[in-house]
Amino acid sequence: MSGLVRFGVSLPDELLVRFDSLIQRKGYTNRSEALRDLIRDNMVEQEWEDGAEVVGVVMLVFNHHSRELQNSITDIQHSHLGTIISTQHVHLDHHNCLEAIILKGRSEKIRRLADLLKALRGVKHCSLNMSTTGKKIA
Ligand code: NI
What is the rounded CA–CA span in Å between residue 137 and residue 122? Predict the structure, then answer.
């Protein structure tokens, strides 16, 4: 368990007014928690840039009736067993499916895999949520 350290921050007054307004809208009750989250976001972003081991979620929305596409999505997953840790399939409606693929591994590998999935014909939307293993984030 790490301890808490207090430190002073000097900011242009106008910037602080805007910061306070922003964090209030986002539901923060104090500046410290908002600042901690900003720092964490920045560290996670850096993990992705540095090629560290990270966690990501690829969300795919695609046409249920395209069997070829469904096969391709499954084939890609079967050939990346070391990186894909879980997959959830949701039948959104009669025509649309959503697949949430949770990945853990080197950031460039996860980006490549997300690009591969996105480029498949028939994918309506693909997004990559870039998160962290949490190991280095307090
Ligand atoms: Ni489905």
Answer: 37
Question: Is the four-CA dihedral 18, 22, 28, 32 of positive or negative sign?
Answer: negative
Give per-residue pLDDT as tens, 80-104: 999 999 999 999 999 999 999 999 9
Going from the Cα of 109 to the center of ligand 1, the distance in angstroms, rounded, reads 26
The pair of structure tokens assigned to 88 is 């959830």
* d(CA 61, ligand 1 centre) in Å: 10
pTM recorded for the entire structure: 0.88
57 close to 68: Cβ distance less than 8 angstroms: no
- Measured in angstroms, how far is the CA atom of residue 97 from the centroid of ligand 1? 4
C-alpha 65 – ligand 1 centre gap (Å): 9
- 89 contacts 99 by C-beta, under 8 angstroms: yes
- Distance, CA of 78 to CA of 21 (rounded, Å): 47
The rounded Å distance from CA 130 to ligand 1 centre is 24
pLDDT digits (tens, 9 = 90+) for 30-59: 999 999 999 999 999 999 999 999 999 999
